[in-house]
Amino acid sequence: METTRREMMGMVGGVAASAMLASAAPGLAQQPRRLGSREKTMYWVASVTPCNRNGDFDPGAYAAIMQWHKECGADGVMVLGTSGEFPSFSVAERKLILETALKNRNGLNIMMNPGTSNIAETIDLAKHAEANGADGMLVIPPFYFNEPPVEGLTRYYSMLCDAVGLPMNPYHIPGTSEVPISIELLKNLYHYPQLAGIKDSSGSPEGFAAFLKAFPDLNMRAGTSNNLELALDNGMGTILADGNSFSRKCADIFTAYRKKGDWRGALQKLRSAMQIMREANAGANTYASMKFILAQEMGGGDWYARAPYVPLTDAQKASIKAGLDRVRAMG
Predict the structure, then answer these.
(1) How far, in Å, CA of 203 to CA of 168, rounded?
(2) pLDDT tens digits for 245-256?
(3) Shared domain check, 69 and 218
């Protein structure tokens, strides 16, 4: 169900928010805004992409992963984000992976990342997602290029929004993409009703707070658990890689929030579990370890990271299993 600009601003601050947004984008205060989800305060898993030992995508494993997150209480799944190793897959593979997720969505809200370093393939992937029923897209900026100007990024995202109507969320992860999403860029794109929000994976509380203040009617999702308090205090959602390791603990935070319960206590349990696993990681690469932890939580086995990353060693697997035993004993 779409929510009007007036209704959304009433939820986040009424007249003050309306005046600020009218100043930022004159004449647009009453346009409908398409957020791509039934509500803002939702938990999406930034899902891994399961691969076999040869590095081939495993559709059956992905179907089981989708079911797992549904049973754990997730609201949605983010397909082919950073945790999904999106640059490691071809355009054809990315389409197959998304189709597999959508066929096994089980009522989950499905976001996807069509982003590439060229607008033609980005639009192609976005149109495919729209045609197949995705709920929204999280779009990495064109990476590799050194410090593209705001005007160029505005043109890039505008070309995408002119071609595709899916709710669109620029992806702020400057430590990886080296191309930040700025408040100025979002203001330039604000006239598009499908501008739904962002994912902020920078980890900066100050930067995230600035996004929240500037765009209270959008869904300014936290991409790191250290900013979850800020997100929930402002009625925003999250897209968490931590959900690969502990999806139920992530979902428990949002369950408690909706019931006006002790969601901060649930968040502390997640943070304690993640700290244990960081200590147990034993130098393993993030993608391989997330897949191994998820497989163990689902009952055993393993999935593999794609090249250029390498499989876990037996010693790393043993250390991770010992860490999981500590987490389970913690409750």
Answers:
(1) 21
(2) 999 999 999 999
(3) yes
Please report where in the chains the tokens 């409908």 appear, as a residue. Answer: 32
With both helix axes pointing from N to C terminus, report the angle between 286-297 and 314-330 in degrees, rounded to the nearest 10.
Answer: 50
**Domain interval for residue 97:** 37-259
Annotated catalytic residue 317: no
In the predicted model, is pLDDT for residue 50 greater than 80? Answer: yes
Q: Is 171 a catalytic residue?
A: yes
- Which listed residue (62, 157, 171, 192) is catalytic? 171
Measured between alpha carbons, how far is residue 233 from residues 5, 209, 268 in Å? 20, 11, 16
Q: How far apart are CA 9 and CA 4, in angstroms?
A: 9
pLDDT more than 90, % of the chain: 88
Name the catalytic one among 199, 249, 291, 317: 199
The mean pLDDT of 144-150, rounded to a whole number, is 92
Residues linked to residue 200 through DSSP beta bridges, in sequence order: 172, 222
**Same domain as 98, residue 13:** no
Domain assignment of residue 273, yes or no: no
Helix (H) or strand (E) holding 121: helix 119-131
Are 148 and 119 in contact, with CB atoms under 8 Å apart?
Answer: no
Question: What is the DSSP-derived secondary structure letter of residue 107?
Answer: T
